Amino acid sequence: SVESSSSLVNTRCYIDGMGESICSPSRFASVLLRKALPQLVQQVPGQFTQQMPALEKYVTAVEAAAFERSQLSGQMRLGPAAFLFGAWELAVPADLSFSDVLAAYSGALEAWEQARAAGQLLGSSELPLLVVDEANALMVWSDQHATELRELLMFFVSVTKANKRSHVVLATSECAFTTWLNNKIGPAFWDSWVIGDFTQPQAKEFLSLWLQQLGQGCVSEKHWTGTYQVGWAVSVQQLLGV
């Protein structure tokens, strides 16, 4: 059932910018469709997704793919269950533009928030977290994609600072990335955290100081063990209690 499977789903999505090759808008949109959107939609009852036209267009495309793969009755509306058939692995549907995909993700975040407020989420209630590793891959988008790049960066601003629907972490070891990002959207919409190659004690001390600055107290031994083994980005929600 969807309910029994939802415990395996959380609100964190990690995108490996190098491995996924997010070097163009279509590639980035494909990754959002395959990785980020399913994790949200699987947690949201159908009555909430149906209120978001942009998201409903995406869900309909996934349901069609699931119908093909599973040979289920054409009369059955699958809703979140469609994702159990791996239908989210489809490439970007031809009728979904880059803007459509971002709108669908925004719709999913809004539907997720409405379900959370109503106490009807099928999974974690932690604020969604999108981590884009090797985010410097965005720097190589060609000039012909300048419009889409601007749209993506403003989308990040919209779902974080403006509407507070998600966390977005752009991770990179490229020193020029911060200058590039400043030139694209200015310094008012993002914060920079510089993390070096720490030993375990150094990493724990750094994270403890950072949490104290945010008024979140110290790192518990329970959370620290998992954080150091898995990586700070995917565990930051647990540490902040969001």
Structure description:
The protein has 242 residues and is mostly helical. Helix content is 51%, strand content 6%. The protein contains 10 helices and 3 strands. Strands 1-2-3 form a 3-stranded parallel β-sheet, sandwiched between helices. Strand 2, helix 6 and strand 3 form a beta-alpha-beta unit. Helix 2 packs parallel to helix 5, helix 4 crosses helix 5 and helix 9 packs antiparallel against helix 10. The radius of gyration is 19 Å and the shape is globular. The N terminus and C terminus are likely disordered.
The level of helicity is 40-55%
The biggest sheet amounts to: 3 strands, parallel
**Numbering strands along the chain, what is their spatial order in the largest sheet?**
1-2-3
Q: Percent of residues in beta strands?
A: 5-15%
- Taken from the alpha-carbon principal axes, the silhouette is globular
> Helical segment tally?
10
- Mean pLDDT across every amino acid position: 76
Oligomer: single chain
Radius of gyration: 19 Å
Rounded to the nearest angstrom, the distance between the terminal CA atoms is: 27 Å
Q: What would you call the structural class?
A: mainly alpha
